[in-house]
Write a structure and sequence with these properties.
There is one protein chain. The chain contains 17 helices and six strands. By secondary structure, the protein is an alpha+beta fold. Strands 4-5-1-6 form a four-stranded mixed sheet. The protein is globular, with a radius of gyration of 22 Å. The relative contact order is 0.13.
């Protein structure tokens, strides 16, 4: 099997007790079949302790105690690791924050933004992101509906990847260009022989790659109203953290002041503009190719664009409050956003549906907003 991962992927190391927001708090921890059997057969005092803290209604999982895993000790270290070793962990604890996606003979792996150690690796270096390709002896999965379409989408992602790394343009113009590009991709997906249609479209794009960056007529789009609606939509979603709704509500209540300070904030931190590029590449890499299964590429690129819009507003509000914005602030905000949106299947599904139904999430409206911001 061919395996792909970002260049920073092998560098990930859990910071354990040094983490300021451990993944062992506030998350339901499901136990896979192999680990469940191992825990059931564990002998001695620790074996009894394991079994006492496992609930078996539905998928087996640990019974949290005040939102904490029962095996997270006072030093924020894992008693299972300390007693039995890392090999005794259940699969979700071993893998987090890694994610994997399988496309027939291809496996793509990455690091989730909801972990602060992973987020640091994703955003901190100025160098452009690259992908590493290797091979393993993992079995090939027979789950790819259309290999020709997958190859065409891979080629399209390469174009988008290059587009998002075009540092001569602002990140907002790059996102607007990506949305325009993806509207054409979606038209191909909606027609007959989508793989062939995408290949033909890419040939036309390669003949005039600058066309998507052209200025558009600056028709008023009510950017502040659009942002208000975006914030209201995200406020309506499931909350994974009790502080999240209050944070968004406060920004919405002072939106005019935040928007008024946005350009000054971005100008003061223009030497760190590459951080937004890395975030855009993260969303592009994690989600775009999944459109081979559901035929919906446009909502995935909208997720990339809207995520960066909302993150930039949250960043500005943070800076406005303290007149400083550290790398740790960037990581904290990005991690909180990822936890609320990416790690709730319900929230992701609601965004996908709203991206097709709500006018403020239309590609046209988002492109106008981004071009005004650019």
């Amino acid at each position: 099997m061919k395996v792909t991962y970002p260049h920073y992927y092998p560098a990930f190391r859990c910071t354990a007790s040094a983490c300021t927001d451990t993944c062992c708090v506030g998350w339901e921890i499901d136990i896979d079949d192999a680990a469940f059997l191992r825990y059931q057969n564990q002998t001695g005092v620790f074996g009894r302790r394991l079994r006492e803290h496992i609930l078996t209604d539905g998928t087996p999982h640990f019974q949290l105690q005040k939102e904490r895993c029962p095996f997270l000790n006072e030093e924020n270290l894992c008693d299972i690791i300390l007693t039995l070793g890392e090999g005794a962990l259940c699969e979700i604890c071993t893998e987090h924050p890694r994610f994997h996606a399988w496309f027939g003979a291809v496996k793509e792996s990455g690091l989730g933004l909801c972990c602060e150690a992973a987020a640091r690796l994703i955003v901190e270096n100025e160098a452009p992101d690259t992908l590493i390709h290797t091979r393993t002896d993992e079995p090939v999965l027979d789950d790819l509906p259309d290999e020709r379409l997958f190859d065409a989408l891979c080629a399209a992602r390469e174009r988008l990847w290059s587009m998002m790394q075009r540092r001569s343009e602002s990140i907002w113009k790059r996102l607007a260009a990506a949305l325009r590009f993806s509207c054409a991709l979606q038209d191909c997906l909606d027609g007959e022989a989508p793989g062939d249609a995408i290949t033909a479209f890419l040939a036309c794009y390669d003949a005039q790659p600058d066309g998507l960056f052209c200025e558009m007529a600056q028709a008023p789009c009510g950017s502040e109203e659009t942002l208000f609606q975006i914030l209201s939509f995200f406020l309506s979603l499931e909350s994974m953290d009790e502080s999240w709704p209050g944070m968004l509500a406060d920004i919405r209540a002072h939106l005019s002041a935040v928007v008024g300070q946005r350009r000054l904030f971005l100008d003061q931190y223009r030497t760190r503009a590459y951080e937004y590029e890395h975030l855009a590449i993260y969303f592009l890499y994690r989600y775009m190719l999944k459109s081979v299964f559901d035929g919906d590429v446009l909502s995935k690129i909208k997720l990339m664009a809207v995520s960066l819009v909302l993150l930039s507003v949250m960043d500005t509000a943070c800076w406005q409050e303290t007149h400083a914005f550290s790398l740790q602030d960037r990581i904290r905000i990005a991690k909180a956003y990822s936890k609320q949106i990416e790690y709730s299947e319900e929230n992701l599904l609601q965004f996908q549906q709203a991206s097709w139904e709500q006018p403020f999430l239309s590609a046209q409206q988002l492109v106008k907003l981004l071009m005004q911001w650019g």
